[in-house]
Amino acid sequence: SPEPPATGVLAGRRLVITAGPTREPIDPVRYISNHSSGKMGYAIARAAAAAGARVLLVSGPVNLPAPEGVEVRPVVTAEDMLRASERAVTEGCDVFIATAAVADYRPENCAGDKIKKTSEAMSLALVRNPDTLATIAARPDAPFTVGFAAETTDVARYATDKMQRKKLNMIVANDVSAPGLGFNSDQNAVTVFWPEGQESIGPDSKQAIAERLVTLIASHSDRIEN
Ligand code: CTP
Ligand code: CA
Is residue 86 classed exposed, middle or buried when 0-12, 13-18 and 19+ CB atoms within 10 A define those classes? Predict the structure, then answer.
């Protein structure tokens, strides 16, 4: 693959981006997941690579091609995503961006054989998954961390709460109650929060929003590290 350009607002920076859904197996043929398309994370990866960054995408199962010049490490479960992200950050990372829609819970046990339809009702015991973003942000060598928050109400309050709770440098809030935006759409509108300010972007294409996010992340991560 071609060398990244030496110029651009992220020249020489190493980015790790999580994207897409995770899948949590119930038995050999079934899983729990969500409707995340991965489009926002892949758009940011593309924009960051175009801005000169070395980009590694830790990606759940999606139907998207690897963006030009971006290394994709495919994962399936939330536990896989944590392991792959920790490895990628240990290899060297200046900015960590978590766009993935990680399943909050997984089945307590994955049945070894296909579960048979034997009763009128069934219940599934679920246990909490590890939080990749919070784990990376809590490291002593934490990179500049950017989270996403998909909310339907009290967007600003929930998003800034998440930023503080997970000790993030920035959070991108998505109002998923807006029709035709967000999950699975090519369009989005977001509000970005950092400790001293905020900026609303869009409605616009996910690629245009990704380009503005990359500019904001570049200037704020500079401020932290220099
Ligand atoms: N995230 C993560 N690992 C998880 C859950 C979330 O890395 N197990 C990341 C997401 O990629 C996102 C951010 O944390 O960047 C916020 O995710 P969100 O689902 O909005 O927040 P949660 O902390 O899971 O809280 P809740 O779903 O209850 O609102
Ligand atoms: Ca969640």
Answer: middle
Evaluate whether 36 touches 100 at the Cβ level (below 8 Å).
yes
Residue nearest to atom 27 of ligand 1 (CA): 104
d(CA 89, CA 84): 9
Q: Give catalytic residues, as residue numbers.
A: 34
Report, at the CATH architecture level, how domain 14-110+123-225 is classified: 3-Layer(aba) Sandwich (3.40)
The answer to whether the annotation marks 131 as part of a ligand binding site is no
Q: Could you tell me the two tokens for 129?
A: 């998954």
Question: What's the per-residue H, E or C state across 21-37?
Answer: ECCEEEECCEEECCCCC
Q: One-letter amino acid identity for 42?
A: Y
User: Does ligand 1 have an atom closer than 6 angstroms to the CB of 102?
Assistant: yes
Number of residues that make up the chain: 226
pLDDT along the chain (226 residues), means of 10: 72 97 98 96 98 98 97 98 98 98 97 94 96 98 96 92 97 84 79 96 94 97 66
Position 178 scores a pLDDT of 76
* Sequence spans of domains, the chain: 14-110+123-225
pLDDT of residue 160: 96
